[in-house]
Design goal:
Blueprint lengths: L2 H26 L4 H7 L4 H29 L1 H21 L3 H29 L5 H30 L5
Helix pairs in contact: 1-4, 1-5, 1-6, 3-4, 3-5, 4-5, 5-6
């Protein structure tokens, strides 16, 4: 591989991390539903909202990510998506109330939706034609790895914490 191809592969792998975060963020909530329900004294509707809120805002983000990336550039919107992922993770972990948890998850949803649409597009645009399919597939592979990592980390945390919920 040439230096340029190596650089392109490295950039594609970095951008594909958005797929990992998307898969992880969308799935990690499954490990905490047994705990947030009593922690925040949630009704079943509120519990469902805490899970679905990320998906709802991801859907909205998918509708606006393309036009925003046309105006500001895919790279810039992906950078903002990464910031939203970070703020969402910190906010979700430290949320003292149900409302702040949902707001944090909704912010993450904007990052998820934008990266879901823009990451494969950006990779396809920077990849040489003979490598395009392989490089774009890194994003999809990372989504699956992120989902798996969420389920395995949920299991291990429950197991090592001795919660009895595993």
């Amino acid at each position: 591989m040439t230096k340029t191809q190596t650089y392109t592969v490295k950039i594609a792998l970095i951008v594909a991390l958005g797929g990992f975060l998307m898969g992880f963020d969308a799935s990690v909530i499954s490990g905490v539903v047994k705990f947030i329900e009593p922690e925040f004294n949630l009704t079943k509707l509120q519990l469902g909202w805490s899970v679905a809120s990320l998906t709802l805002t991801a859907t909205l983000a998918m509708m606006v990510a393309g036009p925003l990336s046309d105006k500001f550039g895919r790279r810039k919107v992906l950078q903002w998506s990464a910031i939203l992922f970070a703020v969402s993770a910190i906010g979700s972990a430290l949320a003292p109330t149900f409302l702040l948890l949902v707001i944090a998850r909704m912010l993450g949803g904007f990052g998820v939706g934008a990266s879901l649409i823009l990451a494969p597009m950006y990779i396809a645009e920077i990849a040489p034609a003979n490598m395009r399919g392989r490089l774009v597939s890194f994003n999809q592979l990372n989504i699956v790895i992120g989902i798996s990592a969420a389920f395995f980390s949920n299991y291990l945390i429950l197991k090592f914490a001795g919660s009895g919920a595993d």
